[in-house]
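Sample pair:
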Amino acid sequence: MSTRTSYEDGSPSWCDLATTDPDAAKAFYSTLFGWEFQDDSAGESVYTMCKLKGLNAAGIFDQPEEMKGMPSSWNHYITALDLDGTIAKVGPAGGTLMTEPFDVMDAGRMAMITDATGAVTCLWSPKGAIGAEIVNEHGAFVWSELYVPDPDAAFPFYSEVFGWKKSPMETPEGPYLVFSRTEEMETGFAAAMKPPGEDVPPHWAVWFAVDDIDAAVATAAEAGGSVPVEPFEIMPGRAAMIVDPTGASFFVLQMNDPSMVD
């Protein structure tokens, strides 16, 4: 299913780009994914909705002052229908509340947390905006992946806070945990694995679907991005890592079997 009208509690549901150059980011992602843009005033700042087929696919915003000097990065969101109740579980599970809950106009309410390993994610309690309205097709959010030195040690946080289940898999790169609502992995929506290098801190990476991965990486390079990880084979298809012209990294996935994602 590529369109959404709601998300279950505890589901990854949105991603947005905190960038050093919104105009450069728009030009790049428009070329790569075919996104169109709607700029919305958010107080003294502007939040840009990235649209596919007229539906919200992702967000872009200029880095706030407290982030200046940091590289551009994609943020990962998990739906928390009871935001206060979810936050109450974060500390006992070993995480940290980074920002107190706040209203995003009439769109929803959010907070930023770290898990027990220090990986940052955002919590989203929807009002007028559910998150991504289109998923699992070219240019849309398709997958979330947690890079952490010990995936098994990271899992209890997500189990305690969100009720996630895990389905372990063995890969040539090491243990791979698929997160889902059931242990049968019928509705996998995220995963955890070791990062590619020892100096990579724990973090969430976002993935976007593409119809043709070879064309996507060629387009990304022509549009001013880079491809630090060339296309490689994984169980659901072929993937690659791309860095946009402002320094934000993400993955693209050409799926052989769309039923592998929820």
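The helical segments are 22-33, 83-90, 151-162, 213-222.
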